[in-house]
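[step 3/7] fold_predict: job queued, chain A
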Amino acid sequence: MRRRLARTAAALVCLIALGACTSEPSEVPPSATPSPTATASATPSPTPAPSPTPSTAPTSGPDQDVTRPPTPPAALDGPATEDNAVLVAKYFVALFPYVTSTGDLQVWDRMSGRTCHYCANVRDIVTKLFDADQHSVGGADDIGFGSASRISADSFVAAIDLVQHPSRTVDRQDRVIETFPDTLVLRAHVELSWTGSRWRIDGLEMQRMGTQ
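[step 4/7] structure written:
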């Protein structure tokens, strides 16, 4: 059962130094009572906040951190253009390794339309995977060229090229259940539409073009 579940998932393919200065007392006559010497107290300067450490995780290749969600593009806010359709389609495709490694389906579900059978299948697979205390490791995508055609005022079809790196399915103790050693060359055909307030994925087909 576990091997079958893993195979189905594969098919669907980041000292401030404080100084103090002291004035020298001036010479006074012997009969005079010397005035006390005033010592200036320095006010500490605020310590600057440390700069955030930039992420060293690669942004391409098999060693990407797929447990971090892809960055949402500004195109998610519209409008309905071919260029924005491409960016949104790329973003949705990039969610796949994230949801299979983390089980976080919030964005996936929010963008998935009722007619998208691929979206529903991925959701079912991820749910069953995590119900079995399993998850995916690896499987990062390198997203490549994309293009889109308008099929109506607010509907588009986008083609997205990508390379999917090898992955494996493991259990909670990191024992390997299944490995997927191939680096796949894929093309995603994405149907999507702008509802006036958000983008919706209406359909997706993943086509295998070859291996590397």
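[step 5/7] annotate
The first helix runs from residue 2 to 11.
The chain has four helices and seven strands.
exit 0
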